[in-house]
């Protein structure tokens, strides 16, 4: 299912991307569809981090600790439930959310320790 066309293509028997020709318009259309989904996914990740920056600002102003284990568990559980309900791997979504939550924690740490300079959170 990996369509990165990168050097670590573990599960593929497809020819290299430059071998895709006009004789395979179905594949080109599907890849264009996948690219559009990736664009939306990346925008949603950016939007999620933007909201987390705003959450960190509230935490900073109200003296709330950055780490909220109950919230982390809730988000992880929701992702696992979604996976099970939609025929996806709960382990995959748990891993994906671990990465996103890790980045969120990094950003929140920067914002909470920045004294209001939220530009530091994304750099």
Question: How would you describe this structure in keywords?
Answer:
Chorismate Mutase Domain, subunit A; 123 residues; single chain; mainly alpha
Account of the 3D structure:
This protein has 123 residues and is mostly helical. The protein has one domain (23-122): Chorismate mutase (Chorismate Mutase Domain, subunit A), CATH 1.20.59.10. It is built from three helices and no strands. The radius of gyration is 19 Å and the shape is elongated. The protein starts with 24 loop residues before the first helix and ends in an 11-residue tail after the last helix.
Helices and strands in order:
Elements: H1 25-62, H2 69-85, H3 90-112
Helix pairs in contact: 1-3, 2-3
Number of strands: 0
Give Rg in angstroms: 19 Å
CATH class: Mainly Alpha
Task: Give the overall form.
Answer: elongated
Counted up, domains total 1
CATH homologous superfamily heading: Chorismate mutase
Terminal-residue CA separation: 32 Å
Poorly predicted ranges: none
Helix residue percentage: 55-70%
Give the amount of beta strand, in percent: under 5%
Number of helices: 3
Largest sheet properties: none
CATH architecture: Up-down Bundle
Mean pLDDT: 84
**H-E string:** HHH
């Amino acid at each position: 299912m990996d369509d990165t066309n990168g050097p670590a293509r573990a599960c593929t028997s497809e020819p290299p991307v430059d071998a895709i020709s006009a004789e395979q318009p179905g594949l080109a259309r599907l890849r264009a569809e996948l690219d559009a989904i990736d664009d939306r996914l990346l925008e949603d990740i950016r939007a999620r981090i933007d909201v987390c920056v705003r959450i960190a600002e509230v935490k900073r102003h109200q003296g709330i600790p950055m780490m909220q284990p109950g919230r982390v568990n809730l988000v992880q559980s929701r992702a696992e439930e979604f996976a099970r309900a939609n025929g996806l791997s709960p382990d995959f979504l748990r891993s994906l959310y671990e990465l996103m939550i890790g980045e969120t924690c990094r950003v929140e740490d920067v914002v909470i320790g920045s004294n209001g300079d939220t530009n530091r959170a994304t750099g």
